[in-house]
TrEMBL record:
Protein keywords: Isomerase, Rotamase, Signal
Compositional bias ranges of the Polar residues kind: 41-57
Lineage: Bacteria, Pseudomonadati, Planctomycetota, Planctomycetia, Pirellulales
Organism, as annotated: Bremerella volcania
Ranges of compositional bias, category Basic and acidic residues: 58-68
Listed PROSITE patterns: CSA_PPIASE_2, PROKAR_LIPOPROTEIN
Catalytic reaction(s) noted: [protein]-peptidylproline (omega=180) = [protein]-peptidylproline (omega=0)
Gene: ppiA
Family affiliation: Belongs to the cyclophilin-type PPIase family.
Keyword RNA-binding set for record: no
Domain PPIase cyclophilin-type, first and last residues per copy: 72-239
Signal sequence residues: 1-23
Protein name, entry field: Peptidyl-prolyl cis-trans isomerase
Region (Disordered): 29-68
Highest taxon listed in the record's lineage: Bacteria
GO molecular function: peptidyl-prolyl cis-trans isomerase activity
Amino acid sequence: MKFPHLSSSVAVIGFAVCLGLFTAGCGSSDSANPPAVSINDPGSSGTDMTSHTVSTDVRSEPGKRSDFRGEEFPEVVLTTTKGDIHLRLDAKKAPATVDNFLTNYVSTNHYDGTIFHYVQPKGMVLGGLFDANMNPRETKSEIQNEAMNGLKNKRGTIAMSRDPSFIHSSTCQFFINCADNTMFDHIGTDDSSSFGYCVFGEVIDGMDVVDAISRVEVQSSDGFVNLPREPVQILSAQRVK
């Protein structure tokens, strides 16, 4: 099983047995282990994970944990072409992740005009890196993975994607769980596959919008799988609290 990936390359989420999430190579399709979601960034099947990386930092030097000075539960509204998704973030349990999301991406308008490039009913919707022309946006430093914070990948939660081979490799890509995806939870620190994907908030309004996005008609194109045939865009991401 593969896990969510969030760097900048082709990512495949092996959603086969249990919705495996995010690796690099959205294009490979195996009936026994169909690609799921590219949590970092999809490209051509079989492409090297770093081939589309636009981050100015190297994967071997993850971003350091920062001290988040804002409220413990800031809120963000994602206005999409399918409706609004209202998020409540947990800066108490995932301070570095929330700081990264708000400071590096929301406040800089990074997400405005990006798309959800992988969707799956009862799986998740993944986005945050590509625009409607499938061009990746520039990313900031990779951050420390806070998956051991006790938060679980339950339906309605938002989590960071990453390179499944590197624990501390999340940048801008995120996914919203449309089901309880326990296979993405932190279960140990021995290796990347057991470390999990960091949950840093939840949807408090607009889960019907998330479900609608997950059910749109999809296609496989240029190495991407489960790519919405008609782009589902994030028109804006704004902090409201």
